[in-house]
Amino acid sequence: MNVEDLRSYCLSLDTDVVEKFPFTAFKYAKDVLVFYISGHMFCYFDINDLSNVTVKCDPDSIPELEEHYDWISKPYNGNAKYWIGMDAYRADNEQFAQKELILLSWPIQCLVLFRFSIFGVSSNSLRSS
């Protein structure tokens, strides 16, 4: 996958998906493109280096995914309990698997937001804690 393929795929997941470059103030992160659903990140990567496309992941699935795919590693600047890194260059012949992992990362954030709304908890109030 190239940058445009990744970008198009992430944006195609939902009409509420938003893309931003939130780290422009940081020299080494200014080209990191982040995808959000309802204000929460689910995928990000440096547009000049796809060796670590970072996606949200079910914590219980991470060990199995790391064992099964040699192109899955630790996330770039993310909590390894909830995020994985994918080397898009090495996984180029497994685009279906890459897309599936991105697709699975999106509802994880939606589920978290849904739980907050059921219990009347604002996700913004959790961030300030």
Automatic annotation (TrEMBL):
InterPro entries: YjbR-like_sf, YjbR/MT2646/Rv2570-like. Keywords: DNA-binding. Pfam families: YjbR (PF04237). GO terms for molecular function: DNA binding. This is MmcQ/YjbR family DNA-binding protein. It comes from Sodaliphilus pleomorphus.
